[in-house]
Amino acid sequence: MSGVLEFNDVSYVRNGNHILDGVTWSIQGDERWVVLGPNGAGKTTLLRLATGHDYPTTGTVDILGSRLGRVDVFELRNRLGFASSAQAKRIPLNESVLNTVMTAAYSVEGRWNEQYDDFDIRRAERVLEEWNLGELADRTFGTLSDGEQKRVMIARAVMTDPELLLLDEPAASLDLGARERLLQLLGGYAASPSSPGMIMVTHHVEEIPAGFTHALLINKGQIVAKGALDDVLTTDNLRSTFGLEFELTKSAGRYAARATGN
Ligand SMILES: Nc1ncnc2c1ncn2[C@@H]1O[C@H](COP(=O)(O)OP(=O)(O)OP(=O)(O)O)[C@@H](O)[C@H]1O
């Protein structure tokens, strides 16, 4: 079975630096991956390639069965859902929450002259309900809290029923309550058999939602470990990735890590 995303011996080099180095990685549509690694490891670069926002220096990237470099990336991106803080910054602050989500149907960030039909409106309203945003539909994006904005960006990413959903640090900078509410929603979404393949970048094992199945650990552009979550999340692999000794625990499907040495 060919995957929804295939990296084959991918390197990405800038100014002589190997930002990604020999990355081979395959994701199937029923897998939910977390990508973990320290600052500067290459996680965002991985997502930029996986969403067709950049090209590998060497190696190949296949997204939804199409080879990057031989396919119209704008068409391809319509089949992907992607949420990041960089994208959130492009949303006009005076745009309504409903429009912020609905404009994903046209891959635009602010409403202009596009004609939306009842289907688009109903779909956007349903997605807002699913992500606990129904009461905020008429609010403007700029008046939302950080946690609410992050949920709106995820709702926008799933609005078009993507075949692959990519989330870059969706829980970053959230307070404990907002983080836990978001992880519950993400866990529920990940557990649904109708959900697409997912990739979520994070810095913290505590932010891995229950229901995620696989992990990729990366450091200095190279894969440290990849595979089933429980096989990959080990103290040895965390030490190799973050350069510290950790105590790692798992409870009710969630992980926690605490440094034990240096
Ligand atoms: N176009 C570029 N030119 C030069 N260096 C780059 C370029 N893009 C990324 N880098 C560098 O590559 C490294 C990896 O960047 P990337 O943003 O992928 O890391 P990251 O794992 O997402 O980091 P963080 O966790 O801090 O967000 C960083 O050192 C970054 O400065």
Q: Can you describe what's shown?
A:
- The protein has helices at residues 43-50, 73-77, 85-88, 97-102, 118-130, 146-158, 176-191, 229-232, 235-242; strands spanning 5-14, 17-27, 32-36, 58-63, 66-67, 80-83, 164-168, 197-202, 214-219, 222-228, 246-251, 254-259.
- With 262 residues, it is α/β, with parallel strands linked by helices.
- The protein has two domains: 1-72 and 164-229, P-loop containing nucleotide triphosphate hydrolases (Rossmann fold, 3-Layer(aba) Sandwich), CATH 3.40.50.300; 80-161, P-loop containing nucleotide triphosphate hydrolases (Rossmann fold).
- The strands form three sheets. A six-stranded mixed β-sheet has the order 6-7-8-3-9-10, with helices on both faces.
- Helix 7 links the parallel strand 7 (164-168) and strand 8.
- The longest helix is centred in the last third of the chain and has 16 residues, at 176-191.
- The chain is globular, with a radius of gyration of 18 Å.
- The structure holds adenosine-5'-triphosphate (ATP).
